[in-house]
Design goal:
Elements lengths: L2 E4 L6 H10 L8 E4 L10 H9 L4 E3 L3 H12 L10 H10 L2 H13 L3 E3 L4 E4 L16 H4 L2 H7 L14 E4 L13 E3 L2 E3 L12 E4 L5 E3 L5
Parallel strand pairs: 1-2, 2-3, 5-6, 6-8
Antiparallel strand pairs: 1-9, 4-5, 7-8, 9-10
Helix pairs in contact: 2-5
Amino acid sequence: MATWAIGDIHGQYEALLQVLERSHFDRGKDTLISLGDLIDRGPNPFACILTLLDIPQRIAIRGNHDENFLHYIDTGVDRFHGENGMKETVRLWKQLGEEQQEAVTAFFRSQVPYFKDDTDRIYTHGGFDPTKTLAEQDPEIFAWDRRLWERAYGSASEKLGLAEPFSLVFIGHTPTLKFEGNLPIFRAGIWNLDTGAAYEGGRLTMMNVETEAYVQSDEVD
């Protein structure tokens, strides 16, 4: 049994199928931790969600795009105002049947802001305030924060000092394309697995959290 973490999928269904195949992911035994942002920008967001729903051992972290879409489902209000790929996501949402909409909604409601495993690895979408414990955080920070990664990327330390220490931290949210290209980056005890699947030239990344070996999709067109 292996545990895998996957970066921001952003509706890239073909890329998702590629990494599941290339990793030899065993749906009957392995665990998949999605780091959030399943939707927006890519062409098939809901196919991605329905695929994850077929994986029994899954942990779904809520990203900022997911949070915005759940707010839209609940209120009809899009806080992105059609930007960031939301206009197309809404169009595709309205094409889904009632049963599929219910399944997708249930998926979004099942998402969590972070997950901590039994070896003190922490998984979240954006980040958190390193001066506070998890219990002390503003819940919004997990989906939206970029400062943790920016601090880690600029650090020369082997590991950031944290109020609540972790063995490793896994995040997405801030594409590595903005820093070094479409490969995952490790800095100061933090793995950033958002390798830009939302953008041309980016890839989707899936990493075995025990071995830190990873597979990637083809580059996104």
